[in-house]
Prior knowledge:
The structure holds two protein chains of two kinds. Chain A is mainly alpha-helical. Chain A has a domain at about 30-70 and about 110-190. Helices cover about 35% and strands about 5% of the residues of chain A. Chain A contains seven helices and four strands, in the order H-H-H-E-E-E-E-H-H-H-H. Chain A has helices at about 1-20, 30-45, 50, 125-135, 145-155, 155-160, 180-190; strands spanning about 60-65, 70, 80-85, 85. Chain A has a two-stranded antiparallel sheet. In chain A, strand 3 and strand 4 form a beta hairpin. In chain A, helix 2 (about 30-45) runs antiparallel to helix 7 (about 180-190). Chain B folds into two domains: about 1-75, Beta-grasp domain (Ubiquitin-like (UB roll)), CATH 3.10.20.30; about 80-155, DNA polymerase, domain 1, CATH 1.10.150. In chain B, a hairpin with a 2-residue loop joins strand 3 (about 50) and strand 4. The longest helix of chain B is centred in the C-terminal third of the chain and has 16 residues, at about 140-155. Chain B is an alpha+beta fold. In chain B, the strands form two sheets. Chain B has a three-stranded antiparallel beta sheet, with helices on one face. The interface of A and B includes residues 77, 85 and 90 of A.
Amino acid sequence: xxxxxxxxxxxxxxxxxxxxxxxxxxxxxxxxxxxxxxxxxxxxxxxxxxxxxxxxxxxxxxxxxxxxxxxxxxxxxxxxxxxxxxxxxxxxxxxxxxxxxxxxxxxxxxxxxxxxxxxxxxxxxxxxxxxxxxxxxxxxxxxxxxxxxxxxxxxxxxxxxxxxxxxxxxxxxxxxxxxxxxxxxxxxxxxxxxxxxxxxx
Amino acid sequence: xxxxxxxxxxxxxxxxxxxxxxxxxxxxxxxxxxxxxxxxxxxxxxxxxxxxxxxxxxxxxxxxxxxxxxxxxxxxxxxxxxxxxxxxxxxxxxxxxxxxxxxxxxxxxxxxxxxxxxxxxxxxxxxxxxxxxxxxxxxxxxxxxxxxxxxxxxxxxx
Lengths: 201, 158
């Protein structure tokens, strides 16, 4: 009996030591309030023109910080890539073309209408509305929290927002309000909190 | 300066140009293929449209360094293609052209449309041709010629 108690005590001590050892310690859980705060940081990026210009609710993409309708009567097309004779790829190449001021990236296209972050009058949706859309797996290509984090961390067109090239006049395009690392970190905190969304409209 | 090996209308061409030079100016100035026109220079009018790997492309804003090994087809080579031939024939039969400046770009866009959409609706035509401007206002004849070409292609005449 004494030996059994000693064995249990030893095991408890070992587990306690193991759990408290820094390399194996679990990160402090992110609570809902922290998650919501992190989401607001994510939202500030999603509604920046480098991102939201291709998350329209209309039949056309937008351009510029003033988010004007894209020149040349460009339309969305069935797959968000324009239409025959007027495809996105007819101008937007695999990389930015700084000598002519045309941005580029792999598989340049509009986000699907299910991922619209604006209304049909080109006004950004509220933080709560965008959050609900982003976390709705019937709208977001069935991405769970880790999937959303991976998307924000690795998707080439997401990353393009931080290297958007230059305007035809040589000036640099503006960047989102966070760095990409900060954006990914905020997304991670939000995901760790369980992707909470603000309440209300 | 850099040397580029291009495939233009099925022919191998070599040019030595600044990498930032738009494809349009390589075609017009270096290869002396002046059928492709300079209109706005900012991809807003469509006069400079060529096909790059089959995609109707605004050559005025694509630096030559971005072309790679993708085949280029210009208005000078479009008649080698059956759809291209049908469109050109329809253009002539319908007497589309007025001043003609925009028409090479119009034809290149129309061919791209008909290669993917064999029975284009009014909406298809409006959307696909909406980026090609014509200051003479030949739009009704352009639409008629596209429909005529589509009918000819459907009959197997192209």
